[in-house]
Specification:
six-stranded mixed beta sheet, 2 domains, Nucleotidyltransferase, domain 5, 13 helices, about 375 residues, about 20% strand, alpha/beta
């Protein structure tokens, strides 16, 4: 006799409901978009404590500045690639109902003769309003993005942002600021580089410079040099020549209490190579401190690989194999010029600076350690 089928057999099992994550309040969201010479990057975030929590992001290589060094203009193909990326950003902003945002463009749009036409085309085709920011603001935003990485033992700080079209350097003296307040004093620079009226002990900007040489523009300057090692040496020398007007360049600086923070794809790629990462991991890279010997070893390894080997390296790839060498040439020049054997790696930059500046201005960040 066949066993009796239990009652309810064959019915669909009852779903075990897990609550969906609550969608963030659109009124609490901020967005920051950075359109550079090589890349289009965006973050959407909400304030959390003294920092923020990322809700959505976007990053794509658009090579907006391709050919700019030769023609002085943005090409049709580079503008088309960029607008396609900006459409995706616009969809993300719309989907998250973001109201507070800053969407900025940097060196490629500062230099291109047809940048105003491009900005109008972006507005017409995507509805996004891009703002071309000046080098001082770009440098300032890069600095405040790195505030959480500033050591309380630091007295002299050099922040370096290696971009696609330019490199910003900012030298800051925080020796008169109480140790525990030094990162917060860096954050307060969102008001401007001159904070004489601040009621708090202020970080003093000794000097800053925007060198019109980034990974793409420096590479383009020496495209005609065939030998890999010779091209690298020439790029490093040429970049150092362009630092002559930077006030702390020739002064002897004490090694004690000095910190360099580097923010860029070059710095994070070198860090990933040093760690031997098969897949990039921001949590292992951001905040890492590398010695100058470790950086030199990675750069020598890049030169030994040659162009073909760098293309095959999963941390570099075809798109970045030439750019990593121009970026490394800049990095080597900087470590040659200043008295430190360590570099702090920052996987952060203009987008994070834009978010911190907006949130700080609105008073939505809590006081306290980052």
């Amino acid at each position: 006799m066949a066993p009796k089928r239990p009652k309810g057999a064959g019915a669909f099992p009852k779903a075990v409901e897990s609550p969906a994550p609550a969608r963030p309040d659109p009124d609490a969201l901020y967005a920051a978009l950075d359109l550079g010479t090589n890349s289009c990057r965006m973050l959407i975030a909400q304030p959390k404590g003294s920092g923020f929590h990322v809700v959505d992001s976007f990053s794509k290589s658009v090579q907006l500045g391709a050919g700019l060094e030769r023609t002085g203009r943005l090409s049709r193909s580079s503008m088309a690639r960029t607008i396609q990326a900006l459409r995706i950003c616009q969809q993300k902003l719309k989907r998250n109902k973001v109201k507070r945002m800053r969407l900025v463009a940097t060196e490629a749009c500062r230099r291109a003769k047809n940048s105003r036409d491009f900005i109008r085309q972006v507005k017409r085709e995507t509805g996004l309003t891009l703002e071309i920011i000046q080098p001082e603001e770009e440098a300032r935003l890069a600095v405040i993005s790195c505030a959480p990485l500033v050591s309380t033992k630091t007295e002299q700080l050099l922040v370096v942002d290696i971009g696609g079209g330019s490199t910003e350097l900012v030298w800051i003296d925080v020796s008169s600021v109480p140790r525990r307040d030094r990162p917060a004093a860096i954050m307060r620079l969102h008001h401007g580089f001159h904070t004489a009226d601040s009621p708090f002990p202020a970080a003093k900007v000794v000097d800053w410079i925007s060198v019109p040489l980034g990974v793409a523009t420096l590479r383009d300057q020496f495209n005609d040099v065939e030998d890999d090692s010779a091209r690298f040496a020439l790029m490093s020398w040429f970049f150092e020549e362009n630092l002559a007007d930077f006030a702390p360049y020739k002064d002897e600086q004490a090694r004690e209490g000095f910190q360099i923070v580097g923010t860029s794809g070059t710095v994070t790629t070198v860090a990933a190579s040093h760690l031997g990462l098969k897949r990039y991991d921001r949590t292992k890279v951001d905040g890492l401190r590398m010695t100058s010997d470790q950086i030199d070893k990675v750069i020598r390894g890049y030169l030994e690989l040659g162009p073909l080997g760098r293309r095959r390296d999963p941390r570099i790839g075809d798109d970045r194999q030439a750019l990593i060498m121009s970026g490394s040439a800049i990095l080597q020049a900087l470590l040659r010029c200043w008295p430190t054997d360590r570099l702090s790696v920052a996987d952060r930059g203009l987008r994070e600076g834009l978010l911190y500046a907006q949130m700080s201005a609105d008073g939505v960040l809590e006081d306290g350690p980052f």
